[in-house]
Structure formats: structure tokens, C-alpha cells
């Protein structure tokens, strides 16, 4: 086992390896998974704020609020649900972000500390497959935008083309073209992704504002929009859907709450990354929510129905210029959000499974292929499926992983990790049993089963039976994210009690820390982090 003196803790708390070349022989290492040296951790508060602006301002974010309006909420109820959800999900997001900034490691490497060097692949691939689903969803709505734009320019011959698998063949062509553009960018590597994001992030805001102004003009101002009454009221009808809707809003960013270390590993300090996220996530999502609410409510005023998809709503506008400019902006910025939120992380996740064979580029291409295979058009075909089936189900599963990581990092190890052991092949404290930590696996299963085992759908509104997959725990599904997080958190701590706080480990860490400081002769300049 590598001694902890192989790593240095700087005065600001960030940790790095003295010599990363010692890891190169491990089959669990590649350059993209390697801990980032401190001198390369340069992201500031603004970088994280801008990152969230790019990731939050997209069509699926819009669909959160418009979906709530479509199922009967008024603007106050929808805005309250989304804002509260994003404030709650910010907590596990910041808890998991800490390890990325402190150790310079991405999410799948962080997960090795508690799932085992091999077992981390379970957590990483579960998260990665969800990202593939999101990649497909974003690509589908982007393809819809291309379809509508060309329909306005070409005419009915485009929009009225022969149907293939329930859609005009021209819709499939737009989808594949949008997919191909993203694959081209991914094939050029992560630098191309970052350069593309630098100039596209604000464009989606412009696109949505064009839609909003057009709706306000046509609807006669804010009055008719905010006067829309809730079809659910404020009684039982509202509170029955509030809890599962809130879980769906939280689950929307459940993926990022796990893999934010993929981005915070480049952070200049804990304060900068945390402040950037606190300023970035709630504000950008609240802005997105209110814009979506006004546009969707305005659509009800104009067309007598809640059209929750902004692309389909824009298709009804009679001004080709407004449609083309707005949707082109949305399409370009959707690519930016998709690459940042749904390609970077699964690329790391797939690379973690086969570090010597899968690079960032290949991982991104795998993401693109699975994104089509998952049939994203089905996931967003109905707001009930989008919110109550897709979001709530995967949110509960990923919440269980977040619970294990939070319990392990903050309670069991008290934020102390040994970097070299995260790459150790056949030995080290994170090898556990054959590379797997059974405690983390059992805790994850317990949390996930309690969270989503009772998954149900109202008749005709989803894929699950009305009585739930496991009827006795059906009641938990309305609180899937919270149940998964808390259950896995407690289960992992309970299973880890026999080894938690081992006196031998504690003494070893204290000796190494004291030895390192004595060698340096001036306490405070660097300290070894056991």
C-alpha cells in the first residue's frame, strides 16, 4: 500500500500527489481519471456560475415548469415546487462537490473509496446510463427544433412528409442530423466541447426571451397569464401531486448531484466552487421556471390548452422569423447544455470501467449510441411519464448512491482519502473484497428498493401497475428521492459500524501526518492528509 506521505495537503485544504507517475502502471488509471495537479485547478466562482447557466437553460429544464402547468398547477404552485426542489438538491450536490475540489478526482474515482476500486463501476454506470437517456432527450428536442425551423422555411412538404414509426421521416432526419453534429464535436475531444460551450451558453436565454416577448404581446401582457387559476386548487388535489412533483424536480439534477466532482476537480478553492454553485443553480433554474410558466400559461390564453413543449408551441406562431430565430437559438444552446451535462460525465464513467481501452472520445460516442437506443421520444411523450416515471424512478435509484457517498465521505472517513489507494490494483484500503465493498452494494440496494420498489402509475398515465411494483411500499414512491437518500445513508452507516473509526487506522494516519510535518520543519506549509 502507498503511504499517505505520497500526497500533500496544501494550506487551503486541497490535496495532490507528490508524483502521479507512480500510478501509471495500474490498470485502473488513465490520464483523464488522474488526480488534477493543484496548479491546473483554476476554475473560479464565475466559471461555475457560467457552467450552471449553460446547463440549466435548456429545453428539458423548460419542460419541468411547463409540465407542472400542464398537469394543473398555477404559476405560484409550479414556481414554488421547482425553486424548493433546486434548493434541496443543492445540499447533496455541495456535499459531493467537496471531494472533487479537495482531491482533484472525478466522480467514478471518488466512488471507488466506498464501493471499491471495481465496485465503483456499478455506481458510475448507473449514473452514466441515466446521462445517456438525458443525452437522447436533449437530442430529440433539438431535432424537433430543426424539424420545425425547416418546416417554416420549406413548407408543408417537409412537415407533412410520410410517417415512419409514428413520426414524419423528416422528423427522424432532423433528429439524426442534430445527433451527428454533437458526435462531430465529441470526436474532437473535451477541448472542442469546452470551446463550443464558451460562446453558446447565453444563446438559449435569448431564444426563450424571444418566445416570451411574443407570447406577452399576443396574450395582452402579464395579467391574463398570471390570472390563470390552478385546476388542482390548494387542497387535497394539489398536495397529492406536490410530493411526487417535488421529487421529480429534485431528481432532474440528481445526476449532477452525484458527478459534480467531474467539474469541481478543477476548482481553485472550496469557497469558489460552492459560491459559484449557490449563485448559479437556484437563480438560473428559477429564471428558467418563471419564463417557462409565463410562456406555457400564455399558450393557454392564446390556444386554450397547455402546450408544454416549446418547440410545438413555437410551431403555432404565424411569424416565420420569430420561429426560426427563437428555435435556432434553442437548438444551438441545447447542444451546449447536452455536451456539458450529459457527455462529460458518462465519458468518465465508461472510461472508468475500462481505463486502458475507453478514452473520453470513445466514451462520448458510446453515450451517443445508447442515447438513441433508449428511445428518448417515449420518455418525453407525456408530462406524466416525464415527471412521475422517468424523473422519479431514476432519481430514487441515484439518491441511494448519493446517500452511500455522503455517509462514507462525511461520516465514516471524515473527508479523508488516500489518493494512491484509489488506483491500487489488488491491494490498498479501497480494494475491500476482490475490489468490491459489499456494504455499499447492500446499502444501495436497500435504498433503491425502498425508493422505487413501489413505483406506480395512474391507469393510462405510465408504465407501472396502478398498485405499484411492490404494493406494500407503494407509498414511498411519492417521496422516492428522499427515501433513497436517507435509507442508503443510514444502511451504509449501520453496516459499517464494526470498522468505522478503527483505532489502528486512526493511529497510522496520525503518525504519518506528524512525520510529514516534522520533515518539513515548518508546520502549515503542507500537511499529509490521511
Q: Topology, please?
A:
Layout lengths: L6 E3 L5 E3 L27 H12 L2 H12 L4 H29 L3 H9 L4 H35 L1 H4 L3 E2 L2 E2 H19 L2 H11 L2 H17 L2 H5 L9 H17 L1 H6 L1 H4 L5 H34 L6 H5 L5 H23 L1 H10 L6 H14 L2 H4 L3 H30 L25 H15 L27 H17 L6 H18 L10
Antiparallel strand pairs: 1-2, 3-4
Pfam families: Transp_cyt_pur (PF02133)
Organism: Prauserella marina
Membrane topology: Multi-pass membrane protein
Write structural notes for this entry.
Pfam families: Transp_cyt_pur. Residues 508-520 have a biased composition (Basic and acidic residues). Keywords: Membrane, Transmembrane, Transmembrane helix. It is found in: Membrane. This is Nucleobase:cation symporter-1, NCS1 family. The two termini are 13 Å apart. This protein has a single domain (7-497), classed as Orthogonal Bundle (Hydantoin permease), CATH 1.10.4160.10. A hairpin with a 5-residue loop joins strand 1 and strand 2 (15-17). It has a two-stranded antiparallel ribbon with strand order 1-2. Strands 3-4 form a two-stranded antiparallel sheet. It has helices at residues 45-56, 59-70, 75-103, 107-115, 120-154, 156-159, 169-187, 190-200, 203-219, 222-226, 236-252, 254-259, 261-264, 270-303, 310-314, 320-342, 344-353, 360-373, 376-379, 383-412, 438-452, 480-496, 503-520, and strands spanning 7-9, 15-17, 163-164, 167-168. The chain has 530 residues and is mainly α. The protein contains 23 helices and four strands. Helix content is 66%, strand content 2%. Residues 500-530 have low confidence and may be disordered.
Amino acid at each position: 500500500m502507498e503511504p499517505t506521505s505520497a500526497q500533500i495537503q496544501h494550506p487551503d485544504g486541497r490535496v495532490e500527489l507528490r508524483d502521479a507517475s507512480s500510478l501509471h502502471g495500474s490498470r485502473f488509471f488513465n490520464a483523464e481519471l488522474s488526480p488534477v495537479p493543484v496548479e491546473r485547478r483554476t476554475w473560479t466562482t464565475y466559471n461555475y456560475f457560467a457552467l450552471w447557466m449553460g446547463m440549466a437553460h435548456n429545453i428539458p429544464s423548460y419542460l419541468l415548469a411547463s409540465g407542472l402547468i400542464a398537469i394543473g398547477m398555477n404559476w405560484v404552485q409550479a414556481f414554488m415546487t421547482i425553486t424548493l426542489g433546486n434548493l434541496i438538491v443543492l445540499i447533496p450536490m455541495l456535499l459531493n462537490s467537496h471531494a472533487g475540489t479537495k482531491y482533484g478526482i472525478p466522480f467514478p474515482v471518488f466512488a471507488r473509496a466506498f464501493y471499491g476500486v471495481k465496485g465503483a463501476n456499478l455506481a458510475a454506470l448507473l449514473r452514466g446510463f441515466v446521462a445517456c437517456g438525458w443525452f437522447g432527450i436533449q437530442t430529440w428536442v433539438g431535432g424537433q427544433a430543426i424539424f420545425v425551423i425547416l418546416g417554416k422555411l420549406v413548407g408543408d412538404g417537409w412537415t407533412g412528409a410520410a410517417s415512419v414509426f409514428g413520426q414524419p421521416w423528416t422528423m427522424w432526419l432532423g433528429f439524426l442530423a442534430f445527433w451527428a453534429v454533437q458526435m462531430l464535436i465529441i470526436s474532437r475531444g473535451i477541448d472542442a466541447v469546452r470551446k463550443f460551450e464558451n460562446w453558446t451558453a447565453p444563446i438559449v436565454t435569448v431564444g426563450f426571451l424571444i418566445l416570451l416577448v411574443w407570447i406577452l404581446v399576443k396574450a395582452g401582457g402579464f395579467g391574463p397569464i398570471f390570472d390563470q387559476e390552478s385546476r388542482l386548487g390548494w387542497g387535497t388535489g394539489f398536495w397529492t401531486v406536490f410530493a411526487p412533483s417535488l421529487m421529480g424536480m429534485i431528481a432532474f439534477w440528481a445526476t449532477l448531484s452525484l458527478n459534480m466532482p467531474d467539474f469541481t476537480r478543477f476548482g481553485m478553492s472550496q469557497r469558489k466552487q460552492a459560491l459559484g454553485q449557490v449563485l448559479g443553480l437556484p437563480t438560473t433554474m428559477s429564471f428558467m421556471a418563471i419564463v417557462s410558466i409565463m410562456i406555457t400559461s400564455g399558450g393557454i390564453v392564446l390556444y386554450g390548452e397547455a402546450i408544454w413543449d416549446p418547440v410545438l408551441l413555437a410551431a403555432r406562431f404565424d411569424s416565420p422569423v420569430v420561429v426560426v430565430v427563437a428555435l435556432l437559438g434553442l437548438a444551438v444552446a441545447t447542444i451546449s447544455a447536452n455536451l456539458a451535462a450529459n457527455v462529460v460525465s458518462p465519458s468518465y464513467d465508461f472510461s472508468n470501467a475500462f481505463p486502458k481501452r475507453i478514452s473520453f472520445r470513445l466514451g462520448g460516442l458510446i453515450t451517443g449510441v445508447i442515447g438513441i437506443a433508449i428511445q428518448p421520444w417515449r420518455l418525453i411523450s407525456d408530462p406524466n411519464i416525464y415527471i412521475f416515471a422517468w424523473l422519479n424512478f431514476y432519481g430514487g435509484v441515484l439518491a441511494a448512491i448519493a446517500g452511500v457517498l455522503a455517509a462514507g465521505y462525511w461520516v465514516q472517513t471524515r473527508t479523508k482519502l488516500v489518493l494512491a489507494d484509489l488506483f491500487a490494483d489488488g491491494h490498498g484500503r479501497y480494494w475491500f473484497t476482490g475490489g468490491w465493498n459489499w456494504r455499499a452494494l447492500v446499502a444501495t440496494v436497500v435504498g433503491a428498493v425502498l425508493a422505487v420498489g413501489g413505483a406506480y402509475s395512474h391507469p393510462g398515465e405510465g408504465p407501472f401497475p396502478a398498485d405499484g411494483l411492490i404494493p406494500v411500499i407503494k407509498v414511498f414512491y411519492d417521496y422516492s428521492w428522499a427515501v433513497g437518500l436517507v435509507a442508503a445513508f443510514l444502511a451504509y452507516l449501520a453496516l459499517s459500524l464494526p470498522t468505522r473509526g478503527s483505532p489502528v487506522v486512526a493511529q497510522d494516519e496520525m503518525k504519518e501526518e506528524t512525520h510529514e510535518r516534522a520533515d518539513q520543519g515548518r508546520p502549515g506549509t503542507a500537511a499529509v492528509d490521511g
